[in-house]
Structures are given as C-alpha cells and as structure tokens.
Amino acid sequence: MSFPALPQIEIEQKVLAVVSEELGIPFKRLSLSDRFIEDLRGDSLDTIGLLMELEETFQITIPDDTSDPAHKEIFTRQPFRISDLVELVTLHMGTQAVPRADWFRQPKTQPGTGQRVPFTQLDGIWKRSALTEPDLLVPLESTVPCPVWRRRTDGMRCIRIPADTVMLGSDLPAANPDEQPVHPVELDSFLIDAEPVSTTAYCRFLNSVGQLPESFLTDWFVLDPEDDRDVHMLIQHTADYGWQPLLGTDTWPMILVSWYGANAYSLWANNRLWSNYRDEAGEPEGSFLPTEAQWEYAARGATPRTYPWGDAPPTPEKLRAGLHRQQVNYAAQTLPLSPVNEKLGMSPFGLHHMAGNVWQWCRDWYAEDFYQQPEATEPNAWNHNPTQVRSERGGSWVGPHVLCRSSYRRGRPPIARGRCLGFRCVSSVSDLP
C-alpha cells in the first residue's frame, strides 16, 4: 500500500528527518541544499541506508539500477543534494514498496571463508634507492592463462593482459544509457594488479614516503574528526611502528581512500613521482590507475558478458555483494569485507574481485555520454576531458549484484571516500625487463 499524494513541504520534512536519523546530524543543522558527499560526508553505505529508510517511510520503491532516464538523471547529479533525494521520492510516489530480502543478506561477523591464494603484498618500508629501473617487475610462474609478474615496490602480483580489439558496453535490456552502445576499442597490452590494494600495502607506501604534509593525508584518506566514518578506518599510526593495519584487517582492501590517495599510490608503486598525484592530465605519468576500457576488458574478456564469469546470475560463492542489512552498525573489524586474495569475483584472466567487495577507482573522468562519443572508439580510449567526477567500477559488498555487472558505470568526486571504495593499479609493459 502506497501513501496518497503528500504536500511537497511534508515530503521535504520527512526526507530531512530520515537524513537526520540515518546520518546522526541534528535536524536543525540540515537544509535541502546540503550536498551529500561534500557537506554531509555520505558514501554508498549511507546512500543504501537512506534509500531503504525512505522506501519504508513513504512505502515506495526507489530502484537503485534503472534505465529510466528521469531517475538516472537525478541519481547521478553532481553534487547530489538533499533536494535531489526529495525529487527522487516525489518521482516514485505511488509505486508499491517491495521487500529487499533478495538484495540484502545478513552479513557474516567474520567474512571471508572461501578459497584463497598466498598473500604476496608487502608491509614495512621500501627505499626507492634500492631499486634499479629494469627490476621493477620480476616474472613468476603462472597458474592463470596470462603471464604473471611481481612488482618489487609492494609485492603485488600483476597479470599481463594481451593486446586485443575488445567490445565494451552493453546492449542488454538491463543496461543503462551510459553503457551504450557496444563499441570496439583497440587496446595495447598492459599489466593490472591481480588484487585490490590492501591495507598492508598502503601502509608500506605511507611508511616509505616519509613525513608527509597534513594536506596530503587529508587529500588521501584522513577524515575530518567530526566524520563518523572515522570509526571504520582500517589503518592507524603509532609513534613506534608508523602506519599499520588494524588487527585482523591486514589482507583487506584499503577503503576510505580518495582518487587522489589511490593515484598517489599508483605512481609510487610504479616507481614514479608520487607527489604529482594531482597532475590529473599529465602525460605519461599522470596516473597508473586503470582506464575504464582496461578495467572492463580485464573484468570479463574481449567480448561482452554480464559478469566476469559469464551471464549466469551470481551466487554467494562467486562474489561479495548485497550484504548490508538495514540498521546494522559495524565496527571496523566487522565490516563484511573479503580478503583481497580470496577467490571471489574472478575474471577470466585470474583477477580477484572484479565484481563485488569494493568499488575501484579508474583513471577516467566520468561522463554519462562518453560511450556515445567518437573518442570512446579511439585506440587505448579514456576520457581525459575534465568533469566533476572520476569513474569507478565493479560494485561492492553494500549494494545489490546488479551494480556488479562488468559494464556498469558510475562516478564520484575525486575527493570522495567510501567504506566500499578501493582501487587497483596498472603497470606498463615498457617497465618489463
């Protein structure tokens, strides 16, 4: 049963009340013009919680993945404001609420029970002077279809993806307009991390670069003291040991990291000048994060299919998604994250977590119409035209599995952080011995 039409002022007041309750912000401090990320410090976990509470409050359905252009236009606005939530609710007034049991399952207290490969990412401190250029990458015996190398800076296994002309995008009924049309892109060979970057490796980066200005740390991952997500930060600094992961999280993905913090790491890991992390358009060392084209190809192969393993619907044994449950409060060590070396979301090239677990930053600026532009079919295509948001791919443990489709696209401001947002890097074949 849906509510009858409500006066606009009543919808606004109810939405403000839900935001106040969900984010723990006093009602009188909120306004309809507040920006969700920049002012309220919200992330995907907050968004899912808000949508579920709004559905319950108004007895409506707010689809999270839809081809409805009106819904998509509102949901992808940058910046996204409370007034946009009001518009979403108004748009869907009169729809009938549906149960979310098929989306959200009770999260496990200790996630991660599947098969794992040995964890190779390194901790401690690395000195740039100890590395000569030809030794950045060393070969390993391969148990996957492609050659495997190990990066000396962080111990990451890197898989060499072969050059190919690949088909990107989707023309399936579930595809959104920003995934269309299916189009060819010629890609050179590249190396991509077999796993998302872990808390252990990110601490190695921080310990290796020495004393950092506070502005760098604030750019990368340090949160405002009033940001309640700080209780979920997985790394800590002590005078005796420097940066270290919290106990029990050493194989988890690094989260709550901005695009800038991911990009700085990508440059450091590839023996480049990491302090240029804001050189967003610089060539050739502007970024060693994967382009959307590289990421999508590495996720599912050269021909379109829905998920890395094919078109079959996912099962809990295949990926970590849809685990958030309404009104669950997490401690840092009980976040339902999966170890980066667990065999979930596996791509045909042997990459872990190319669906689910954590969203992953990409190099591109996100533009909804990029796949419709001529630049999208250029060799080694990536969107270098600045917008307000950077691309992210892959879905996460928070949202439903439909967001984990290999062609699903979205973006966030580069300063944004999330409890379900991490990254992986690419390396250049020119650095191979």
Main sheet makeup: 5 strands, antiparallel
Mean pLDDT reading: 87
Distance between the termini: 66 Å
Count of discrete domains: 2
Residues in helices, as a percent range: 10-25%
The geometry reads as globular
Biggest sheet strand order reads 1-2-3-6-13
CATH topology call of the largest domain: paralog of FGE (formylglycine-generating enzyme)
Radius of gyration of CA atoms, rounded to a whole number: 21 Å
Structural class: alpha+beta
Structure summary:
Its main location: cytoplasm. By secondary structure, this protein is α+β, with helices and mostly antiparallel strands.
Would you give an account of this structure?
This protein has 2 domains: 8-92, ACP-like (Non-ribosomal Peptide Synthetase Peptidyl Carrier Protein, Chain A, Orthogonal Bundle); 128-199 and 255-431, paralog of FGE (formylglycine-generating enzyme). The chain is built from 8 helices and 13 strands. The protein has helices at residues 8-23, 44-58, 69-75, 82-92, 199-208, 214-220, 259-269, 292-300; strands at residues 137-140, 148-151, 157-161, 164-168, 183-187, 190-193, 235-238, 242-245, 359-365, 390-393, 410-412, 421-422, 426-427. The protein has a 5-stranded antiparallel beta sheet, with no helix packed on it. A 4-stranded mixed beta sheet has the order 11-10-9-12. It starts with 7 loop residues before the first helix and ends in a 6-residue tail after the last strand.
